[in-house]
Amino acid sequence: MNTQTILAEKTVSASDVRKHPCQYFEAEPVAVLSHNKTAGYMVGAELFEAMVRQLEACNPKVESLFRPTAARLKAISADAEKLLDEAKKSDLDDFEE
Asked: What 3-state DSSP class applies to 12?
């Protein structure tokens, strides 16, 4: 018999998550099961941000995994500028801020 550790008090099936994903973003982890095995975990934004802050405090090298570098931000900006330059007026008509 195979056993596994589930690091959450709550579990949900992957098919239920597909139906109502936002329902499972909570202040505590929710284990997502696929074929009765843990496929991953869902956490709310506040918990995730706290976890990232804790990881970064323990190991400053971890920060680069969660925050884009200056070079990546520059590339994102250049891509966005190109898309805006190439956009037609009709592409922008539906834009809402």
From this structure: strand
Contact 25, 32 (CB under 8 A): no
Dump the DSSP string for 14-77: HHHHHHSGGGG--SS-EEEEETTEEEEEE--HHHHHHHHHHHHHH-GGGHHHHS--HHHHHHHH
* pLDDT category of residue 96 using cuts at 50, 70 and 90: low
Query: Can you give the pTM of this predicted structure?
Result: 0.63
Q: Is the alpha carbon torsion for 70, 71, 73, 74 positive or negative?
A: positive
Backbone angles phi, psi at 21, to 5 degrees: -60, -40
Residue 28 phi, psi (nearest 5): -135, 155
pLDDT mean over 48-64: 83
Token representation of residue 97: 């801020």
